[in-house]
Amino acid sequence: MEKKITVLPGDGIGPEVVAAAVRVLQVIAKRYNHDFQLAYAAIGGAAIDQFQDPLPEETIKMCKESDAILLGAVGGPKWDNNPADLRPELGLLQIRKTFDLFANLRPVKAFPSLLDASPLKREVAENVDLMIVRELTGGIYFGEKNRTESEASDLNVYTREEIERIIDNALSLAKVRKGKLCSVDKANVLETSRLWRQIVEEKKAQYPDVAVEHNLVDSVAMKLITNPGHYDVVVTDNMFGDILSDEASVITGSLGVLPSASIRSDNFGLYEPVHGSAPEIAGEGIANPAATILSVAMMLRYSFDLQDEAAEIERAVSSVFDDGYFTADLVKDNSRALSTDEWTDKVIAEIDTNF
Amino acid sequence: MEKKITVLPGDGIGPEVVAAAVRVLQVIAKRYNHDFQLAYAAIGGAAIDQFQDPLPEETIKMCKESDAILLGAVGGPKWDNNPADLRPELGLLQIRKTFDLFANLRPVKAFPSLLDASPLKREVAENVDLMIVRELTGGIYFGEKNRTESEASDLNVYTREEIERIIDNALSLAKVRKGKLCSVDKANVLETSRLWRQIVEEKKAQYPDVAVEHNLVDSVAMKLITNPGHYDVVVTDNMFGDILSDEASVITGSLGVLPSASIRSDNFGLYEPVHGSAPEIAGEGIANPAATILSVAMMLRYSFDLQDEAAEIERAVSSVFDDGYFTADLVKDNSRALSTDEWTDKVIAEIDTNF
Ligand SMILES: CC(C)[C@H](C(=O)O)[C@@H](O)C(=O)O
Ligand SMILES: CC(C)[C@H](C(=O)O)[C@@H](O)C(=O)O
Fold this sequence. Notes:
Chain A is α/β, with parallel strands linked by helices. Chain A has 12 helices and 12 strands. In chain A, 41% of the residues lie in helices and 21% in strands. In chain A, helix 7 (191-204) links the parallel strand 8 and strand 9 (211-216). Chain A is globular and about 55 Å long. One 3-isopropylmalic acid sits between chains A (89, 92-93, 242) and B (188-189, 218). Chains A, B: Substrate binds at residues 96, 106, 134, 218.
């Protein structure tokens, strides 16, 4: 298979974890005889420094010519006091909107070997395997905004079409997973939530195999911690999804192992770790590359339909954890920690021994 | 001291836990020579059934003539399909707005004897003692709303005055607690958050003893679980506060022990447990009354400035837990559980033996 991938390393640890993930991608290419052509471009703070633009035209053009995007992370204190239109995060918001990447998939799967690092008791966190589906291009993120010295506002707005497509996406996912969907809203207060709930009710008839429940966001914020094993697919709006997916990430023990996909209906997608640019450890070579490596697996699965290749990466990552190899975020005793590159070597070795 | 208290038992387990808390209040009155005059009124589903109105005029009138309000809980499946203006929750939203109860205080304090019931590891949850201050009468809860079949919207809007008074409230609280304030927003996306952050920056100069940090809501949703011991006072808007305070409640092991106060600047306030009406166990006499009893303690502290009396209730509750007495929500083996009344008896006995 021949595919073009635009690589956007971004800021902080972004370039380090992306470099690691690209190494794994190339090994997969070699082993399975694929040709992945990579083209690098700028986003976020790096793009502001170079082009005074968090998402330069040149980057958009390259992404348009490619089959998928691999992103590191954006942001850092260096740009914190920049004017609104020159903040690194804007590059991220704009690329999501420009490419209509409305479905943000954030799987949270507990690796048994990492549970010591979780703040949750083992019996609560083990066996968790859920997927948060967050609407990514609508809601309060993109509604009309205003601010004066005496008042500010943000409009939370959803059209029927925006809700329908994300609900369809989540129901389809639930159908091929464990057959359960929890739709999260605040229907006792918000009108957007009432429309959301109504559309879920309309849509669910088309998916008779999926058991659908509605739950309020405050209640789910609790149950995600008290009983995360209850969930399969969780679908919610942009703002609630931002909060709940970060919250759910604590279950696994490290943000450093959580991948994400932001996709649209034709399978074009952007893949990035859930974690941020972690400027405090940038350049030290100690960042955990697992989240970005697993994001590459999601790319293979969702954008290229390469199921075996995706599964092989996931198997290798899991097996390296089981063998007791960890980066610094996952061990108390730092002298036992592997560097980003050393840990990536283990993953590559694990793939190689399988051939 | 003479005080008038309006009691709103509400729905589900509301009447049961309120009855228990009133018993404790009366014991305190006797022991400390106070005269608390109680007047009962309807709210929520009970008020809809009786008056076709979740917050009848008569109830508002009684609250206006009193010094504080004690509330049980509202809602239940019976009214789930009611039209929007006849939903029990509306009674709660309206009473908050009518009485301008803009500051919702939700303390989360770990009881050492309850940590077995927490989903968090003991070393993470122990020693937690934080206070969430949620803005309660503004934001997306009360902004303009619209819904058609094809689109819906909710306006998140804050004025400078609304933000200033809640920030002042939170800074004053931090000053007499551990001197730390975490202000939570989504300033990388929302204009309301940018105004919020700006006002926190302006205000903090007036409280030189308080260490102030800003943090994004998604990040706090994680850190509340990975490192809850980090927090002292956490201040945020209505919607984020709803989510984060329910999330933080899991730390203690049961929603059944979490009180709340909703107050305004003149110390008039409404006191209620954080938990809901729990219709599935209503009428069984097994509900945990601790949250409502501790809400009475908050009433004594914040509305009546009766510090010793408040502390005595808190001491008694804590000591009953330490003696190994629990309601059903806190034990695995139900045969060991005390009923609502039995557990309240223990609290009263504990207060009595102290005199
Ligand atoms: C950086 C920020 C704008 C972004 C968001 O809120 O969507 C991030 O938190 C995320 O979840 O990807
Ligand atoms: C019942 C509901 C309207 C209410 C809210 O969202 O404020 C509740 O969740 C709470 O937190 O008191």
